[in-house]
Amino acid sequence: MSDANEAALDPQASAASAGNETALVHCTNLGKSYRKGKESVPVLSNLNLNIPKGDFLALMGPSGSGKTTLLNLLGGLDSPTDGSLEIAGERIDRFSRSQLTRWRARHVGFIFQFYNLMPVLSAERNVELPLLLTKLSSKQRKKQVAIALELVGLKDRAKHKPSELSGGQEQRVAIARAIVSDPDLLLCDEPTGDLDRTTADDILSLLQTLNQQQGKTIVMVTHDPLAAEYAQRTLHLDKGTLITGN
Amino acid sequence: MKGLTQIFTVSAMNLRNLPQRLGSSSVAVFGVACVVGVFIGVLSMASGFQRTMISAGSPDTAILMRSGATSEMSSGLGFEEIQIVSQLPQVRRENGEPVTSAELYVIVDIPKRSTNTSANVPLRGVEDGAFEVRDGIEIIEGRRFETGRNELIVGRGAQQQFAGLDVGNTIQFGQMEWDVVGVFADKGGLSESELWTDVRVLQSAYRRGNSFQSLRVKLASEDALEALQAEVASNPQLDMDVHRETDYLSDQAEPLSKFIKGVGYPLAVLMALGAVFGAINTMYASVSARTREIATLRAIGFGAFPVAFSTLLESLILALIGGVIGSLVVYLIFNGYTVSTINGASFSQVVFDFAVTGDLLVQGIVAAVFIGLIGGFFPAVRAARLPVATALRET
Ligand SMILES: Nc1ncnc2c1ncn2[C@@H]1O[C@H](COP(=O)(O)OP(=O)(O)O)[C@@H](O)[C@H]1O
Ligand SMILES: [Mg+2]
Question: For strand B100-111 and strand B214-218, is the pairing parallel, antiparallel, or unpaired?
Fold first, then answer.
C-alpha cells in the first residue's frame, strides 16, 4: 500500500497534523486579502492545512466564504498575501508570475464548473493541450491522450467537438485534460455544479475512481453535500477560516 | 520548440475562432481597407500625373526659352535667335538639316466631355521637326495636319476628355475655324493633352508675327547639353535658358505632384489614425471575447507571450485582409482611370491616368501592416496581463 492510501484511511489525522513531512500541500497561516481602494479586505486568514498525497478533499462552505480563492492559491493562479504555501516541496508563495505559470503546467490539473474546453478543438486536441507544454513527441502525446480518454470512458468521442458532446461528456474531456500530464494535484471548482444528479454522480464516481485507483490527489470545491460524500474527507470554510468537518 | 508549439497552438486556435467575431473584426478590416484605399488612390494619382508629365520627355532633347521664363507661357523668342541656335554644332543634324521645332503655345477654351464646363486646353503650333524631336509621336487616327492650313491634330487624352475633338469635326477658336484631321499618341506623355497645328498658321491666327515661345532641339548627344548651355550663354545675341527636356518636365510636374501628396499624405495619416483606433477597439473586443479561453490556457500553463502573440497576429491578419481589399478595390476602380486637371505650372489641362503601380501596392500593404501592429499592441499587452484568477471568475 502507498502512503497515499494509508493517509486516506485516516483523513482526520492527516488534516490535523501540521508539519507532516509527507504532506503534498502544506499551508501555514495562509492568508489572502484583496485591496479595495485603500482598504485591505481579508478573504482568507490564518489558514493551516495539510493535504497528503492521495487525499480526496471536499471543500464546502457558504457562497463567498473563500473556497474558490483557496483553490486558486493551491493552483498557483493567485498568490497569497500572508503565510506560506508549500506544494511538493516548493514554496510557491514565493514564485513570480512566470514561475507560477511553468509550475502550473507541471503540477496541477484544473477542472471547472463550466468545463472550459476550447470550442474549436476536438476532444483529443483539448486533452492534448497540457502535453504541448512538455517535451513529449507527437506520438507520445497521442498515446497519453488515448490513455486519458480511455480512463474517462470517452475513447469513442475523441474526434468530437465540445458542441457535439453532452455536459457530462464535456466534463469527462475536461477531466482527461486535467489528468493527461499526470499532475500532483487535481483541483475541481464545483465540477458538478452544471450537471443533473445522475450525470453528477457519474462524474463524482469517476473522480473517486481516479483517486482510489490512480492515486490522484484531489481537492474539490462543492456546495453539494451529496458530492462531498464521494470525498475521503470534508473541510468547511466559513468567512475565510477552516472548520474541520465530519 | 515548446515555445513555438505554444505560439502556434494558441494562434491557430485564435484564428479558427475568428469567424465568431466577424462583426467586430470587420470594423478593423473596413477601416484599414479605407486607409489603404485612399493612400494608394492619392499616390496613384500623383504617380500617374508624374508619369504623364515625364514619360514623353527625352534626355537628348533640350528646350530653350527666354531667360528667366518658368514655362512656355511666359517665354518669347524671336526668329533670329532661333536661326542662330539651330546652326550650333551641339544640335543634331539629319540629312544636313537641324532637328528642331520652334513652337508657339496658346490656350483655348474647350468644354470637358464629362461636365460640359469649359477648360483651358493647350494649342501648340509646331514645325515639321516636332515629329522628329519627339520621336514617340504616332498618328493613331486620321492623318497629320497639312502645312499652311487650319488643321488640327489632337492628343489621345485631349480627344477623350474634351468635347468636339473627333476626327472630321470643325471647331472654332478666336476668329478661326479648325478642322480636326487626326489623333496622336505620345507614349502616354504630356503632349497627349494638347492640340497641335502648324506654327505658321497659329502665328497668324493669334497675330504673333514671327515670334515663338520655345525651341526644342535634338542634341547631338546626351552630354552635349552643357556645351550648348555654355554656347548660348556666351553669345550676346542670345538671351535664353537651355533645359534638358526631362528636367523641365519634372519641374513642371512638381507643384501639382507636391500638392496632391501634400493633401493626400496628411489625409491618409489622419485616416490611418482612425483605423488604428478602430483596430485597437476590435482587438480589445477580441481579447474580451476570448477572456475565458485565454484564462483557461493560462491556467493550464500556457505562457503570456503566446497569448500576446496570437492577439498581435490576429490584428495583423485583419489589417492585411483590409489592406488587400483596399488595394484591390483601388486597383480595379482606379488603375488606368483617366482624369484631367489644371496644371498650375502651365495654366492648362493635363490629362493623365491613375497609375496603381506595384510599388504603391507594396506601400499600401506596408501601411496596413503598421496599422495592424500598432492596433494590436495594447490589446496584446492586455491579453498577456490578464489576471487569470479574476478572468476565470468572470466566465
Ligand atoms: N479579485 C477580487 N477582488 C476583491 N474581492 C474578491 C476578489 N475575488 C474574490 N473576492 C471576494 O472574496 C470572497 C470569497 O470569494 P470566493 O473565493 O469566490 O468564494 P466562494 O468560492 O466560496 O463562493 C468574496 O467575498 C468575493 O467577493
Ligand atoms: Mg466559488
Answer: antiparallel
Give the integer Cα–Cα distance in Å for A104 and B11. Answer: 21
Ligand 1 pocket test, pick from A30, A32, A34, A235 with the greatest ligand atom count within 8 Å of Cβ, gives A34
For the record, the C-alpha cell of B5 comes out as: 508549439
Strand ranges in A38-131 using DSSP code E only, listed in sequence order = 39-52, 56-60, 82-87, 90-91, 108-111
CA dist A51 and B359 (Å) reads 67
Residues A158 and A123: their CA atoms lie apart, in Å, by 5
Decide if pLDDT at A206 tops 90: yes
Radius of gyration of chain B (CA): 30
pLDDT for A41 equals 92
What is this model's ipTM? 0.89
Q: Coil, strand or helix: which one is B20? A: helix
DSSP A188: E
Interface touch A77/B388, C-beta < 8 Å: yes
pLDDT by residue (tens digit) across B58-91?
A: 889 999 999 988 888 889 999 999 999 999 999 9
Task: Report the residue from A101, A119, A120 with minimal CB separation from B298.
Answer: A101
State whether the beta carbon of A34 lies less than 6 angstroms from ligand 1.
yes
User: Which atom belonging to ligand 1 lies closest to the Cα atom of B393?
Assistant: 18
Mean pLDDT value across residues A209-220: 95
Sign of CA dihedral B115, B118, B121, B125: positive
pLDDT in tens, B39-53: 888 888 888 888 887
In CATH, the architecture of A53-80+103-245 is 3-Layer(aba) Sandwich (3.40)
* Cβ-nearest to A77 among B5, B304, B389: B389
Give every CB contact of residue B118 below 8 A, 6+ residues apart in sequence: B109, B110, B111, B112
Q: Which of residues 14-73 of B touch A (CB under 8 A)?
A: 16-17
Using one digit for the tens of pLDDT, what is the confidence trace for A157-178? Answer: 999 999 999 999 999 999 999 9
The whole-angstrom separation of Cα B318 and Cα B11 is 13
Q: Which residue of B has its CA nearest to A178?
A: B300
CA distance B324 to chain A (A): 27
Instruction: List chain A residues with CB under 8 Å of B19.
Output: none
Query: Is-contact B56 B191, C-beta < 8 A?
Result: yes
Interface of B with A in 268-327 (CB under 8 A): 292-293, 296-304
The pLDDT, as a whole number, for residue B126 is 96
CA B127 centroid distance within chain: 30
B337–chain A nearest CA distance, Å: 45
Q: Specify the residue for cell string 514645325.
A: B127
Mean pLDDT along residues A213-230: 94
pTM comes to 0.78
